Amino acid sequence: MDWPILSTLTFLPLVGAAFILVVRGDAAVVARNARNIALWTSVIAFVLSVPLWIYFEPADAGFQFEERVDWLAEGITYHMGIDGMSLPFILLTTFLTPICILASWESIQTRVKEYMIAFLVMETMMIGVFAALDFVLFYLFFEGGLIPMFLIIGIWGSDNRVYATFKFFLYTLLGSVLMLLGLLWLYFQFGTTDIPELMRAGIDPFWQRLLWLGFFAAFAVKIPMWPVHTWLPDAHVQAPTAGSVVLAAVLLKIGGYGFLRISIPILPDATVTFTPLVYALSIVAIVYTSLVALMQEDMKKLIAYSSIAHMGFVTIGLFTFTPAGVEGAIMVMLSHGLVSAALFLCVGVVYDRIHTRLIARYGGVVNRMPLYAAAFMVFTLANVGLPGTSGFLGEFLVLVGAFQANTWVAFLACTSVILSAAYALWLYRRVIFGVITREDLKAILDLNKREVAILAPLVALIILFGVYPMPILELFHAPVENLIAQHELALEGLRGATNFAAVQ
Amino acid sequence: MVEFPDINPAIAELWLALAAMALLLVGVLRGDSATRSVLWLGVLTLAVAAWLVWSNTDVSAVTFSGMYVADHFGAFAKVLILVGSALTMILSMDFLEKERVGRPEFPVLVIFASLGMMVMVAANDLLSLYVGLELQSLSLYVLATFQRDSEKSTESGLKYFVLGALASGILLYGATLVYGFTGTTSFTGIAGALASSEEQSVGILFGLAFVTAGLAFKVAAVPFHMWTPDVYEGAPTPVTAFFSLAPKVAALALFMRVMLGPFGGISDDWVGIIGLLSATSMVLGAFAAIGQRNIKRLMAYSSIGHVGYALMGLAASSPGGVRGTLVYLAIYVAMNLGAWGVILSMRRLDGGMVENVEDLAGMARSRPLLAAAMAIFLFSLAGVPPLAGFFGKFYVFFAAIDAELYLLAVIGVLATVVGSYYYLRIVQVMYFDEPAPSFVAPAGTTGAVVAVAAVFTLFFFLFPAPFVAEANLAALALFP
């Protein structure tokens, strides 16, 4: 395709941000215009991403919609392109951004202009990460996303926001600078930072291990894995609702995507070497954070810990190197993107009314808010992984893959099914059921039209992908098969003729 | 009859010297009222000099009996110095007027200092090196005390003078040792003498160590950095801005020329020292700045840290390393210039300058554009992509990895993370905290410089290639 649709999509939000920047007038007018411009920009971005899906060729395991322009130096080009593993994440991003902007419509009243600019810049960075096929470019978007998120948490967050945002920024930065050194080393060894080319480069196993650890630092913090997860509950709790949504739904997935796009294909030997480590950390994450989630008094914190547990599932799935496991991991990421977003939005709905996130302050909400209770029910069940919701399929596939790879890992991961049911349903009971005792809850109003418009598409998608997941699954089936085939070839030292070149 | 030297390679320097003297005459005859016009004429003079250098980049010549060299490397550094000087001069206009310290000597001293710096980067002999260095240093000592009524300013100038003189002494001592053991002061001669002897005598190494120490003092690398925070805090703010820009470029360019020119053949003997200077500067710059409340002191420690990164390129002792350092310096000049422009705009409505980090509180609401520009500079100084500062670091780390200085690179990136904390703290104060009393609107001249610097810092990632290619040509000039 001639038209550079990926670049257009990536940088379109920046254009919107520029428009907001020049909005002038008194405060109310500026706020209204900023909201409208941001919403329309993100809706256009979403509409633009639909043809991407339509013209995408799922049977092709290679990269599509490729663009390449000279940029920094020989071998470091502006290289964009997507395959079936990145497309769903781009769609997730463009789908959720308008929802986030709608969710901030009334809850953000101060400095609306800056907020909307930060959000649109954030969208550019997120799409860019998933579309970049050059490691330096990937890194640029990967780190560039820190700036808007730092401001979103720091300016519009709750009481302890400064601590949380610094923790978020410094953790992520520390992880990613080590990746930078690794990528520079790769450049000097192979003269390129082009990801498809690096996949073809056979790297000495010793160096693979060092590089793997450097990349692991970046991705493990981002996804996050135990024990470097502690920034996440803080950031989630302090961030404004839409900030939590983006963090949970998209930013965490960048970590998983990094493993999928970089660690596994470029460093196959080291990946195998460190698989036991990943398994161990993931299982600790699943069991430990699930237990921690049980004891939370703050709704957002509970969902944050539940996210970490789900990400433990993702890392196990990715490192099983079985088609079921890897596809399951991607599915868990996508489903979690929808479900965690929805749950944070649900918390936001009641927070906007009562201004507290403490579970103990609620109870009996169903009496006043039946619609809300129904939506929350769907999301809770999807979070538990009930068959018929999108959450089920991913977890099931991961467990299938894990059984093929290691029975004990699968056994321990299964505990999550029980634990997640425990914390999610208990949360639901404490918030929704019971008798209303608080005065302010007696006057609480059910979902308004805007909130219905936000939550309805999420309910629909979660059920649709639970019942009929094929449109999503078929997207990444071919690239996952290819990834695993290449991985096995690489381990046998057979890189070369039958390589990635074959599918491109 | 002695043959008249070819003055073409030094035409820009000659122009600068003559113009500075003419401006001095204008200042003397017309008195303090002429400050503003002399300042603008000074900017014009520097701009013409930059144009003269730029249009002669192809010239590669040695003149004045081998004491003076004009090459692409020198041209790159000179343009950077001249642009930095000219823009700081524009930044200082508003300050000089409002603080009523405007005197025409100011621009003249800045031009003389710039002339000294140009001689430094073009030196091809220990003698011309010293002459350039002293011309620069003496001008800077006077500039530091320029606010004559302020105790802090005089103190800072005196401190700078005493310590600077000591460092010059150390440098000279080193130079005599080198001369004593090689029999020549010419860079080409020293390189030849070192290349012809199999084993280096201890005397040369002593001389090298003293020269390095003297130069490390001039660039303010740890452990020769002690003077920096005090001098930076005490000197009038535009002078501090000037200190942190052009003289840093000149001293680092000179450092590279000396190390890679005459001592290039024995790089094994000094790479370790430079690496150590670089690592300690990065680490100290990152940690010591955390506790600073005064923004000028904070910027002093920040500049120490940045010198550490720039030295990393020198430690790589390769064309890629020199290229990295040059790119780093150029970007450093741009973002620091902007940051100093914002600091110079920290003037309360009642007219007083303030210089504590807390005074910036809530600036995002009272002066949103200025705050946004400052945030850009701070994120860039912290090295967050896609801002220019990231690319500066990128190219020096690039060189360090290429030279297999892995430990240094790891220390460097970790120091970046620590360092980003204090830059972010300023962002926090500006964006998250409740507003302090507002500042007056920045002067048009200051605002223009800040805007130019912000645009450069923000959009550097779009057009890095020609810029880096230019730095590459400059770097290759040092490796014949």
Question: What features would you highlight for this structure?
Answer:
heterodimer, A: 504 residues, mainly alpha, 2 strands, 75% helix, globular, B: 480 residues, 1% strand
Topology:
The complex is a heterodimer of chains A (504) and B (480).
Chain A: H1 5-21, H2 27-54, E1 64-73, E2 76-82, H3 87-107, H4 112-131, H5 135-144, H6 146-156, H7 161-190, H8 195-200, H9 205-222, H10 231-238, H11 241-266, H12 268-273, H13 275-294, H14 299-318, H15 323-354, H16 365-368, H17 370-384, H18 390-405, H19 407-432, H20 439-442, H21 449-467, H22 470-491
Antiparallel strand pairs in A: 1-2
Helix pairs in contact in A: 1-2, 1-4, 2-3, 2-4, 3-4, 3-11, 3-15, 3-21, 4-5, 4-6, 5-7, 6-7, 7-9, 7-10, 9-11, 10-11, 10-14, 11-14, 11-15, 13-14, 13-19, 14-15, 14-18, 14-19, 15-17, 15-18, 15-21, 15-22, 17-19, 17-21, 18-19, 18-21
Chain B: H1 11-30, H2 35-54, E1 61-63, E2 68-70, H3 72-98, H4 105-122, H5 126-144, H6 151-182, H7 187-196, H8 202-219, H9 227-234, H10 237-244, H11 246-260, H12 267-290, H13 295-315, H14 319-344, H15 363-366, H16 368-382, H17 388-402, H18 406-431, H19 444-459, H20 464-476
Antiparallel strand pairs in B: 1-2
Helix pairs in contact in B: 1-2, 1-4, 2-3, 2-4, 3-4, 3-10, 3-11, 3-14, 3-20, 4-5, 4-11, 5-6, 6-8, 6-9, 8-11, 9-10, 9-13, 10-14, 11-13, 11-14, 12-13, 12-18, 13-14, 13-17, 13-18, 14-16, 14-17, 14-19, 14-20, 16-18, 16-19
- Gyration radius of chain B, in Å: 21 Å
What portion of residues of chain A is helical?
A: over 70%
Order of helices and strands of chain B: HHEEHHHHHHHHHHHHHHHHHH
The largest sheet of chain B, given as strand count, sense and whether it forms a barrel, is: 2 strands, antiparallel
Largest interface in this structure: A-B, 32 and 32 residues
Give the tally of β-strands of chain A: 2
Q: What's the gyration radius of chain A in Å?
A: 22 Å
Number of strands of chain B: 2
Percent of residues in helices of chain B comes to: over 70%
Taken as a percent bin, the fraction of beta residues of chain B is under 5%
Largest sheet of chain A: 2 strands, antiparallel
